[in-house]
Design brief:
Layout (H helix, E strand, L loop, with lengths): L2 H9 L4 H12 L7 E2 L3 E5 L4 E9 L2 E8 L8 H5 L5 E8 L4 E7 H4 L1 H14 L1 H10 L9
Antiparallel strand pairs: 1-2, 2-3, 3-4, 4-5, 5-6
């Protein structure tokens, strides 16, 4: 495979702005998805790429793009087992109606991304930590 074909293949994946747009569509119950539940939604990004938006824990979401050529994904579990993917993790602040980027596979690599995702799903610590910080009775003030 030449460098040019690798760049072409990589550029077919959605970028950060597009990933955030898929999440916004999911949060607003948009109609762009072809399968939708309260927990996840599937989108067709291109002829060979699908995007799935998943609610991991309260207020934390994953946007994952994966190739579809050559195999048929029958369940969400099969989609999540795809080895070739790009993913972003976001949190949604309902009070301010804002989306914040947590991390992504391009930033930290697939292995580290999976570890962060697993820790959040297992313990939900990120969500609890942010709520605890916001509700702390004596916030740290700088002079």
């Amino acid at each position: 495979m030449t460098g040019r074909s690798i760049a072409t293949k990589v550029s077919k994946y959605p970028n950060y702005v597009q990933a955030k747009a898929y999440l916004k569509n999911f949060l607003k119950h948009g109609r762009r998805s072809f399968i939708r539940t309260n927990r996840y939604a599937y989108y067709q990004h291109s002829g060979s790429l699908r995007v799935i938006v998943i609610r991991l824990v309260h207020d934390i979401y994953e946007v994952r793009a994966y190739p579809t050529d050559g195999f048929l994904v029958e369940s969400i579990e099969e989609a999540l087992r795809a080895e070739d993917f790009r993913a972003w993790m976001f949190t949604y602040d309902y009070c301010n109606r804002s989306i914040y980027y947590i991390t992504g596979t391009q930033r930290v690599g697939i292995d580290t991304y999976r570890q962060v995702k697993q820790a959040i799903k297992k313990k939900g610590k990120l969500a609890r930590a942010s709520r605890a910080y916001l509700s702390h009775p004596n916030p740290v003030r700088t002079p």
